Amino acid sequence: MLSPTTESLIARVTTGRRAERLVAILDLVSERGTVALAEISDELGISAATARRDLSDLADQNLIVRTHGGASALERGREIPVALRDTRFQEAKRSIARAMVRRLPSERYVVALSGGTTTASVARALANHRDITVVTNSLTIANLLSGYAGVRVAMTGGFLRPQSLELVGALAESTFNAVNVGTAILGADGISATAGVTTHDETEARTNRAMVAKAQRTVVVADGSKIGNVALAQMAEVGQVEMLITDSSADPAELEKLREAGVQIVLADEE
Which helix (H) or strand (E) holds 166? Predict the structure, then answer.
């Protein structure tokens, strides 16, 4: 069940445009630490009343601290709820998803999909696959795949993380430990040559480590904004990653370090 504040925020995010605006505000606050109401209005071209309402909603969700005349960041790396993250870098994610699906066999095959907005794009791109089984701990992905005739879905058990709508913990890990998959498709909050593949939540990371351990290969799907980032908890060492599918906005220097570490790099928007 979603927390009351999350449910309330999602109910108010009725358009993609507003969701993008809320994410833009979070980015401003994260970058500057403290932002005045007037700065938000000027940067985003919105009225003071609109900015004030958005800040109130974000403060209710405990994503910022509301101050007199503006807002302050809680801490670096604060996780953006999935309801808002799904609006970011949409075209890049669609390109990445198409590139991922092109690299899967067309015959009977088994993949594991972690939660995340890029992996959700991969799930959508599986619509025409004739015979694939997807093992996932993501409620979002299971729901997306439920109407596809050629896709069978195996869900893990576990405890629900409201921020990501993923099932985590020992029950989820035991499901991944009990199956064999051809490809683990992993979303990430960060990937770097030094820290590997990382995410904000340690329990989620442990669940995804179980997924990676039983896969014949692991492919990370992440838009360019995630390349070089390091989040709290490691999901996979860089040596466990066979391929990274990203886009041309990624930092070239960081991509070169990943290549040197043995990761095959695919720039989906240049194919």
Answer: strand 166-168
Residues 101 and 207 in one domain: yes
Task: Name the CA dihedral angle for 67, 68, 70, 75, rounded to a multiple of 10 degrees.
Answer: -10
CA distance 125 to 27: 29
Q: What is the pTM of this model?
A: 0.74
**Mean pLDDT across 73-77:** 61
Tell whether 46 and 73 lie within a shared domain: yes
What is the Cα–Cα distance from 31 to 29, expressed in whole angstroms?
A: 6
State the total domains in the chain.
2
- Does residue 177 share a domain with residue 229? yes
Q: Are residues 25 and 132 in the same domain?
A: no
Contacts by 263-268 with C-beta closer than 8 Å and gap 24+?
Answer: 263/238, 266/99, 268/92, 268/95, 268/96, 268/98, 268/99
Q: Is the pLDDT of residue 143 over 70?
A: yes
152-167 pLDDT, tens digit per residue, is 999 999 999 877 789 9
Q: How does DSSP classify residue 238?
A: G
